[in-house]
Amino acid sequence: MKLSAATLFAATASAAVLDRQSTVFSVSSFSAGCIPHSTQCLYAFTVIQPGTMETTGVNCTALVPANTDGTLPDVKEGTCQLSSRTFSVVRGHDGLKFTVSQPVTPSSNQTGSHLIPGDELVISNQPNAVVERYTGPTSFNLTYF
User: Fold this and answer.
1) 46, 140 Cβ separation under 8 angstroms
2) Burial of 77 (0-12, 13-18, 19+ CB in 10 A)
3) Which helix (H) or strand (E) covers residue 2, if one does?
4) How far apart are CA 80 and CA 43, in angstroms?
5) What mean pLDDT comes out for the span 49-66?
6) Which of the pair, 24 or 17, is modelled with greater confidence?
7) If you write DSSP's letter for every residue of 3-72 in order, what string do you get?
8) pLDDT digit string, tens, across residues 88-137
9) Quick one: which of 21, 22, 82, 77 has its CA closest to 46?
10) Interatomic CA distance for residues 20 and 53, integer angstroms
11) Is residue 91 within a helix (H) or strand (E), and if so which, with residue range?
12) Which of the 8 DSSP states describes residue 111?
């Protein structure tokens, strides 16, 4: 019985460590939406790398042209202020794949992703403007994807 309890404790501790290690970045103040009566959409958030000495989040934004149907567009090289981090957004069948990346060496990057499910994206029919916006949590983690 003691062996089973020890094995269970070790497995639980290992799972907790793996869960913490799988978080690459933590995002807060996330927002995304197309601007009514405009052809632009704005992505904005703050990102921090947990488990490091980083204490102040990095602000990232992208003002990009909306898709012709008013939905949030893909972003290829979104920028973060005073940082080498970049971000991307790619629309797929399940929603938007949101990824933050930072260089580690000249030939490799550290990357974390989060799937924004389609049910957290709402298309509202404003007077004379169909626009999409994000309605999910403003804080979430990015993990190895």
Assistant:
1) no
2) exposed
3) helix 2-22
4) 11
5) 94
6) 24
7) HHHHHHHHHHHHHHHHHHHHEEEEEEEEEEEEPTTSSEEEEEEEEE-TTSS--SPEEEEEEEEPPTTSPP
8) 999 999 999 999 999 999 999 999 999 999 999 999 987 777 899 999 99
9) 82
10) 16
11) strand 86-92
12) E
**Look-up of token digits 């709402």:** 122
Mean pLDDT of the chain: 87
Rounded CA separation 5/13 (Å): 12
- Conformation bin of residue 37: beta by default, left when phi > 0, alpha when psi is -120 to 50: left
Q: Which two tokens stand for residue 45?
A: 């958030």
Note the pTM of the prediction, 2 decimals: 0.83
